[in-house]
Structure prediction request, 225 residues.
Amino acid sequence: EAQVTQNPRYLITVTGKKLTVTCSQNMNHEYMSWYRQDPGLGLRQIYYSMNVEVTDKGDVPEGYKVSRKEKRNFPLILESPSPNQTSLYFCASSRALANTEAFFGQGTRLTVV
Amino acid sequence: LAKTTQPISMDSYEGQEVNITCSHNNIATNDYITWYQQFPSQGPRFIIQGYKTKVTNEVASLFIPADRKSSTLSLPRVSLSDTAVYYCLVGDGVGNTGKLIFGQGTTLQVKP
Prediction:
């Protein structure tokens, strides 16, 4: 089954404690991205990757890092989480070009206290 | 940037046809228009995509006028399960750089 898998689904952490949210896709897609969703603000892109070792900033990249060492994985790293990063996060993947059908993960609800 | 504008919310009743219009004045020549549906606490789900004129699938129809500055998602005979947020999406207009912009979406409430 074609899918994008995120882990964990829920996470509560403290300010400043480094964390990683994993994302894996099984469709051999080149393009992957991370979004955060906050009430009233819709979905905002954090980072995206066009292929292995190729990443770029989206609209709200501050406070986040990503890496793309393998095609299937695109982890989101918060080096020093802060309460304003409390949000619902989604990973997505699609074929090489953007603006095609994207497949989204189930979401990760992160709370930073 | 090809920003999109949609109504914030819409109400409908079961069995009616719903049309949601999206404005995208700065759409680039090579941009497609894509619509997604999202239920609470779930990831968005692809509904339909088009470039011009009309596209239809088993779920919806997409109407795009010749100037492509707007598009209309049409949901035939909605049911309660169609209550969701609907997003209109286009590329950023600077080639295919991968930068997608989601607007605030349209919250559709279907009533019995």
